[in-house]
Amino acid sequence: MLVLSLSERVEDLQIKKKMEKELLQRLLNSFSYATKMFSAITDLEGNCLLSSEQGDCEFCQLVKSSPSGMARCRSSYAWAGEQALKWKEPYIFKCHAGLISWVCPFFHRGKHIGNFICGQVMMWQPAEFCHHWIRELAGEIGQDPDVLLHSLDRVKSVTSVEIQAAADLVFIITSYVAKSEGEIFDFQQKLRRVGSWIWAENKKQKDAGSRIAGGNTEQDLNKLGNEIFIEIRRANIEKAKKLLEQLVLQIFIQSKGQLEVIKGRSLELLSFLIRTSTEYGVKFGEVIHLSDLKLKEIDEADTVEKAVLWLLAVGNAFIELISEKNSSEGEDIINRVVDYIQKNYSSESLSVKEIARASYISPAYLGQLFKKKMGYSLKEHINKVRIEQAKLLLRQTEQTIESVAVQTGFKERSYFCKVFKKITGLSPNEYRRKNFFPLA
């Protein structure tokens, strides 16, 4: 497949797979019909992988009918591809037989993977020296010189403007393939992986003698769906995606592989995702826009694999959407919490529970979110803020240690001293002796 490499054989690349071959063949044919010129895709060694239906001109057919002639053509294509690589744009060259051709490199993820070859035209009428050259070539490749010369007279003659225009088209085509092939060809790879996955899992469950039994099918699926959103809320995105795979597999097994049943279940899942996403704070417009994009895809799905791939794709899209919402929401919560602590650090009653209540979230979720975002616990942050304020009082006032402890929210002097030393490495008195600088 093009997305992998063009330097291997056609069979190894799977270029004959229906979608890849149809796309490339269409591009080659369209180019040739528009320009009346031959076009082909070659690997890095100059081997032709696919060519336009128009085919080579008579002259090139004769040259390539000889093993030595074909070897020369391949060598010309490979050499020209190397030259084009230097500039990353179409390279116009004269082939070993004296005809004008041009080549444009294919790139994928910055890697040169093959060449788009076209041309085999003349820019001028063959001169006497050209006839002499063709006769020598004919002798070297075992062709009749008169027949080869006669075919040369029928080679298409073009102007430099036409050649440049055709080269521009080639550049556009290769740029299109380079940008779109990941989406086009990766889709086919995903279908194959999904197909292997669902049928393998289905067989595994049958071999194990397990089956979806008892209970309410709708409730089972809703339970899995709710678990997915709980894990998103906990920021366990990978676990949420694993649960999604379980949910999709359940839908497939319960549908017994029937496409229309899967599509019906898919629409139910989409409805559930839309409803739950809005409950989790995602804007309705974002959800509807996403669902509009996905509805057409499931409607057009004509195989079980495409429907299952749709289920995974739409589920992951919603997971990412809600995760992004939670991420930005998390930043807002942390900012509010930090501000609240800064304003209330002196209160002895300040606690995780109180801060959570003021932030309208559960203490457990707040503690987990804060640790994930800040790298340390909420309690540690409270103590850090209090000790920073205590350091300020110790440096600038002569208040007693007991007074400083009370003003910074500590109920007991001993506990204050313990926390102070743990954070600063010094006792409050040691810190004051080294840093005391009273305000005038």
From TrEMBL:
<dbReference type="GO" id="GO:0003700">
    <property type="term" value="F:DNA-binding transcription factor activity"/>
</dbReference>
<dbReference type="InterPro" id="IPR018060">
    <property type="entry name" value="HTH_AraC"/>
</dbReference>
<dbReference type="InterPro" id="IPR020449">
    <property type="entry name" value="Tscrpt_reg_AraC-type_HTH"/>
</dbReference>
<keyword id="KW-0805">Transcription regulation</keyword>
<dbReference type="InterPro" id="IPR009057">
    <property type="entry name" value="Homeodomain-like_sf"/>
</dbReference>
<dbReference type="Pfam" id="PF10114">
    <property type="entry name" value="PocR"/>
</dbReference>
<dbReference type="GO" id="GO:0043565">
    <property type="term" value="F:sequence-specific DNA binding"/>
</dbReference>
<dbReference type="InterPro" id="IPR018062">
    <property type="entry name" value="HTH_AraC-typ_CS"/>
</dbReference>
<feature type="domain" description="HTH araC/xylS-type">
    <location>
        <begin position="335"/>
        <end position="434"/>
    </location>
</feature>
<keyword id="KW-0804">Transcription</keyword>
<keyword id="KW-0238">DNA-binding</keyword>
<protein>
    <submittedName>
        <fullName>Arabinose operon regulatory protein</fullName>
    </submittedName>
</protein>
<dbReference type="Pfam" id="PF12833">
    <property type="entry name" value="HTH_18"/>
</dbReference>
<dbReference type="InterPro" id="IPR018771">
    <property type="entry name" value="PocR_dom"/>
</dbReference>
